[in-house]
Amino acid sequence: MTEQTAAPTGAPVAALQGIRVLDLSRVLAGPWAAQTLGDLGAEVIKIERPGSGDDTRTWGPPFLKDKEGNTTTDAAYYFCTNRNKRSVAVDMAKPAGQQLIVELAKQCDVLIENFKFGNLKQYGLDYDSLKVVNPRLIYCSVTGFGQTGPYAPRPGYDFLIQGMDGLMSVTGLPDGEPGGGPMKAGVAITDVLTGLFSSTAILAAIQARNITGRGQHIDMALLDVGVACMINQAMNYLYSGENPQRMGNAHPNTLPYQDFPTSDGYMIVAIGNDGQFARFCKATGKPWSDDPKFKTNAARIVNRTELIAMVRQLTVTKTTKEWVEFLEKAQVPCGPINTLADVFADPHVKARGMQISMTHPVGGEIPLVASPMRFSDTPVQYRTAPPPLGYHTREVLKDTLFLSDAQIDDLTTQGVLG
């Protein structure tokens, strides 16, 4: 484990200073968890396959361009979830590579992996093997279906899980409408949520270790996370026995809470209570909040079709910009439907610092999306850009395992290191 050292006077303290993470994961869910810990100050060592590395390095275009403008082999996708990590290229299929990873695991507090169920046992890198050499190790396994149950051996992918966890049954336009049918989310939301739950579980296990002195195995499954994140839709089913249906952008439990057409596009109105609806009606001069059919949210749900038709007739009378300015003054939640160009040009997004840049050894200054976490005393730290494959191999093996240059050169010649 890394030695806990005091920060220089006046320097910000990282929340996870002194925690070392061994990241054996790739693609999104596991790397997202590791990056979150890295943003919080943990040292993260990312193990990658020599020659190819994390799968997402090839998931382009677009690809990173070097300082001369030449296209590299690293895709933009890789850069979304691998900052604050050091890349070590080790072939774990070779016994010498396995031993290097075991030695690194001895020096780490946390290990994150997302190999298929049981795959790491053949390399002696499963939890039962590593807890013998490091009883304090917190070992987080991220799989599609978990370590138990009939589906445990199956590979799991976000798109597959969005179908199996019920999300696609409630996402998309209703059956029978043009374009109706199941629809996945526009990003791999189950992967991201699993990464967040994993980092939360790891932090809890670190605190538990502070009390017990013992590490433990964390079993994270995309399907479990997907089911848990069905939230109100799951509860609606459990209490009613009726399957929720796809409703497009409408909300099953509050109204009006959806997109509406304007004279030049669309906007979102997100009314969450009767007070907001009354303000909406007062501002627009409509008597709907006095009508028993619409006065309460429960009544509005029953009379959804009639009310939505009337609101749509109203909203097409102004532009999106005009409506947003008008309704904001009335304290009615509303907003535009932004493209990503709109997002990063938005003055509030800019004020919150959600786009950052970091210096990459090949690409120079590169853009990245910031962490959303804000701390008053232990701020997120952006120390290193997502690294080229194997960029830190020699550095990590010398600093952490105290290997000599000759030993590293010999392992490289053997094809153990990239």
TrEMBL record:
The keyword Phosphoprotein does not apply. Pfam families: CoA_transf_3. GO terms for molecular function: CoA-transferase activity. Coiled coil: none annotated. The keyword Transferase applies. Keywords: Transferase. This is CoA transferase. It comes from Comamonas serinivorans. The lineage of its organism: Bacteria, Pseudomonadati, Pseudomonadota, Betaproteobacteria, Burkholderiales.
